[in-house]
Amino acid sequence: MTSSQPEHAATIEARVRCALLRESLALVARGVATPGAVDTVVRTTVGRRLSVAGPFAIWEQIGWDLVQVIVGELVREISNATTTLDALDTILASASVATPVETDGADSGAAKSVQRVAVVGAGLMGHGIALEFAAAGRDVYLHDISSELLTQAVDRARVGLQALALTRQLSDADVNAALGRIRTTTELRECANAADLVVEAASENRELKQRIFGELDVYAPAHAILASNTSTFLPSSYASTTSRPAQVIGIHYFNPPHLLPGVELIRGPATSDQTAATITALYRALGKQLAPLNGEIQGFIGNRLQAAVLREAIAVVEDGLGSPAEVDAVVSAEIGRRLPDAGPFAQASAAGAYATRALLEEHLPLLSNKREIPGLLRQKVKAGELGVKVGQGFYSWTPESAEAWRRHMSDALLDLAARLDIPTTA
Ligand SMILES: NC(=O)c1ccc[n+]([C@@H]2O[C@H](COP(=O)([O-])OP(=O)(O)OC[C@H]3O[C@@H](n4cnc5c(N)ncnc54)[C@H](O)[C@@H]3O)[C@@H](O)[C@H]2O)c1
Q1: Does the N-terminal peptide bond of residue 256 adopt cis geometry, omega within 30 degrees of 0?
Q2: Taking the alpha carbons of 23, 28, 29, 31 in that order, is the dihedral positive or negative?
Q3: Ligand 1 center to 346 CA (angstroms)
Q4: Do 52 and 119 have their domain in common?
Q5: Could you tell me if 161 and 227 lie in one domain?
Q6: Residue ranges lining ligand 1, Cβ < 6 Å
């Protein structure tokens, strides 16, 4: 990968920055998120990753075929505003700009009421979710469809706990005790039947999730809260197969879940205040930083922002302003560098409404408004250049270089966690 600065670095930076700000403003103007919630998501999740690598390298990890599905959905949804949003002045003048979502004052009683957590699906996300609960002293029952997958998950949880130990001052004994709190089973009934909370992190498939929620409703105790980590489906769609929609909620983590503190909370129309309050108290006690949404919206906050950044990154490449590697270098070095400390609203607020309006007025008319999958992305998928999993995408990968990239990302996120996150006890 090259880190050279292209001739058009300033334009690339301004366009991608404005694409991020445009979608941030649109989310607030629609009333689905506060500026504080948007900034929390950016500072604690997507912005941390962008401070380490650009959008091409990041999305390349999961593969362009999957990105085509995720982003293909979201480009139909995200903002296409071409003039400064009317709400800009009001939003920037609002008291909640630059104010992080409140994180203290957790109701310790509600947090302590959740002692047994079932995690359904022990893959990339499930093992990380499980290890974080275990590190916080919860008894975790991890479920997947085969004992081989569960053995692998526990091995990965050990590695994850060792990483977490560096930022949370866990001793070897703490790591072993946490591992000892993770039990595994291939039986969903066994996993759920004593749970206070179930977090579903199984493969992304609507019918599968609806079936799992229907079964969890039968197996889990009546008081248990049922949550999903799905990136795609809305709580109303999986709550519908249960008899307890008031106790169903979306808890959307970001990868890696134990190294990124931000979590989006998505209430369905039937989710009760009590369910939201219990989950809020629990996650605050775990040291997570919460970004609650006011209602259901496709892509939540983080994936809509990421889709806006990727659409613009692709557009500047298609406009000949730089190669994917050059755009990645500009985004991570110039835009991403500030994002772990200040989200788009905190930055706009610091720059002032006048300067922000001027930036937007100059660049909004230039931004991509494509409603379909960008051509460059379609070409990559057609050519089979899907990214890391096939060894070729916008970059060439060997198993060694892919592993080195993952390690670099993980080490950088650990460093950020050590610098920015205050360890808490639950
Ligand atoms: N990967 C990410 O960056 C990311 C980020 C946020 C949310 N999510 C969401 O998390 C969920 C899991 O994603 P992942 O990346 O961990 O996928 P993954 O493929 O790594 O893991 C999914 C696991 O679910 C298991 N599974 C399949 N059917 C099952 C069943 N019937 N019962 C129990 N387990 C079953 C699979 O065997 C697999 O181990 C998805 O809903 C996804 O949208 C993923």
Answers
A1: yes
A2: positive
A3: 33
A4: no
A5: yes
A6: 120-126, 143-145, 149, 201-204, 208, 229-232, 252-255
Query: Distance of alpha carbon 39 from its chain centroid, rounded?
Result: 13
Residue 293 lies in a domain: no
Q: How many domains does the chain have?
A: 2
User: Final residue of a domain: which of 218, 253, 286?
Assistant: 286
On the CB side of 8, CA atoms within 13 Å amount to 16
Relative to the CA of 212, which ligand 1 atom is closest? 31
- Is the full-model pTM beyond 0.90? yes
**Relative to the CA of 149, which ligand 1 atom is closest?**
39
Summarize pLDDT for 252-306 with one digit per residue, the tens.
Answer: 999 999 999 999 999 999 999 999 999 999 999 999 999 999 999 999 999 999 9
Distance CA 306, CA 50 (A): 10
Which ligand 1 atom sits closest to the C-alpha of 120?
33
Place of tokens 């979608």: 23
Same domain, 27 and 173: no
Contact 142, 127 (CB under 8 A): yes
Name the H helices within 104-205: 108-112, 124-135, 147-168, 172-180, 188-192
Q: pLDDT tens digit string along 76-126?
A: 999 999 887 777 888 887 755 655 555 445 577 888 899 999 999 999 999
Can you state the percent helix, strand and coil of the chain, rounding each to 5? 55, 10, 35
The candidate with the shortest Cα–Cα distance to 142, out of 116, 163, 168, 161, is 116
Of all protein residues, the one whose alpha carbon is nearest to atom 7 of ligand 1 is: 231
Strand order in the sheet with 116-120: 182-185, 139-143, 116-120, 197-200, 225-228, 248-252, 262-267, 289-292
Distance, CA of 421 to CA of 145 (rounded, Å): 35
